[in-house]
Amino acid sequence: MSVSHETLLELMSLADGELEGPDKERLERFVASDDEARRLLATLRGDEVGAWLAEAMDRHAAGAGADGVADAVMAAVAAASPASVAAASNGAANATAAARAGGASLAQARARRSRLQVVASAGAAVLALAAGVALTMRAGSAHLDEHAPVASVVAPPVDVEAPSSAMAQQGAGGGVEVNEIDAPSRGVSVFEIPVGAAAAVAKPSGASSVVIWVDDDPGSK
Amino acid sequence: MTLRLFAALVVFAVSTALTDAGAAPAFAAGPHGPAIEITIIHALQSDGGASIDPRLRDLPQLTRDQPFVRYNVYRVLGRQALPLDVGKPATSDLPNGRVLAVTLVDEPKGAQGPRYHVRAEIGEPGKQAFLKLLEVTASGNEPFFVGGQSYQGGTLFLELVVRP
C-alpha cells in the first residue's frame, strides 16, 4: 500500500465529509492523481467497508472470548427465571441481528442519521411555531377577560324623569360620562357608581361607572 | 417510522394551537382597533338562593346597591366583542328579539388617555325603539350598564366595555 497512515486518515475524513477548504481541495487533487487513493476512497464511501468492519469486529470479539461471557450470563439468567430466559434470548438475538444490520453499511447509517436530524429539526420548528401561536392567542385574549373593577354605590341614584332630555353625568376621575339619553314614553334612571373604597384599591384611576335603567313595558317578554 | 414521528409532531402542534384558539374569545381587540365587548346578563329574584355567574367576577361588589340589589341570581347569557369603526354600527341580537346597535362616534382625547364616545340603540323590528338613543363617553376598559328590559321573569343587564 503506497498510501501513508496520515493520508488514510485524511481519506476517511474526506469520505465522512469532514474536510473543508484547502485541505479538501488538496486531498481531492491527490485522489484524482492516485489510483489507489481513489480506490480506497470509493471503498470507504461504499458498502464494503461496513461488511469488513462487521467481520473484523466479530473476529475480534471471538478472540477476546466475548461469546463465553454471553453464555455465562445467559446461564445465570436461566437459573434465576426460566420465563425470563426466552425474553432475554429473543432480546439478545434481536440485538445481534440489529448490530449486524447496522454495521452493514456506513453510507446507509449516515443517510439515516441525516434524515433523523432533518425530522428532529422540523419537529422542533413545528413545536416552536405552535408554542408561539398559543402564546400570542393567550396574550390577545388575556385583556378581554380583564374587567374594569366597579365600585359600590355610595351616592343615591340620579333619576331622570324627562326621557328625552340631554344630560351629562361625569364620574370622579373622568369615568363614564352619559351625554344623552332618548327613550320615548319610558321612564329612565341613571344610577351612578362612584368610587368606593374597594374600587379605589382595585382601580387607582378613580373612574366611576353608571347603570342606565330604562323601564320596559309591563307585559313585555 | 420517521414519517410517523413527524406526522405525530404536526398533529400535536396543530391540536395545541386549535385548543388555545377555542379558548380565546371570538374577537381579540388590539391591533385591529377598539372593540365593544357586550355581556348579556339575565338577572332574577329567586327564593332558591343567590348565585352569580363566576364570569361576573366584579358584580358581587354591586349587588348590595341599586339597581342590582333587586335581584339575587345573575347568569351570563352571552358575551361577544365586536370591532368598532367610527360611524359603523356594530349590532348584536338580544335574547328577547331586540337588537343592540353600538356605534363609535369619535375618540376624544382625555387627560388620562384616549376616550371613546359611543352611541347605543336598542330596537325591535316593527315596534317603537326601546332605547332610541344613548350616548356615552368612557375610557377604555371602563364598563357601563344598560338595564331594565324584561326577560323570562327577570331583567336583562347589558354590560358594555370598550376594549382599546
Explain this structure to me?
- The complex is a heterodimer of chains A (221) and B (164).
- Chain A has 221 residues and is mainly alpha-helical.
- Chain A has eight helices and five strands.
- The longest helix of chain A is centred in the middle third of the chain and has 37 residues, at 106-142.
- With 164 residues, chain B is mainly β.
- Chain B has one domain (30-163).
- Chain B has one helix and ten strands.
- Chain B has a five-stranded mixed β-sheet, with no helix packed on it. In chain B, strands 4, 5, 6, 7 and 8 form a five-stranded antiparallel β-sheet that branches.
- Chain B is globular and about 45 Å long.
- Residues 11-29 of chain B have low confidence and may be disordered.
- Classes of the chains: A mainly alpha (221), B mainly beta (164).
- Chains A and B meet through helix 7, strand 3, strand 4 and strand 5 of A and helix 1, strand 8, strand 9 and strand 10 of B.
- Strand 3 of chain A pairs antiparallel with strand 8 of chain B, so a sheet runs across the interface.
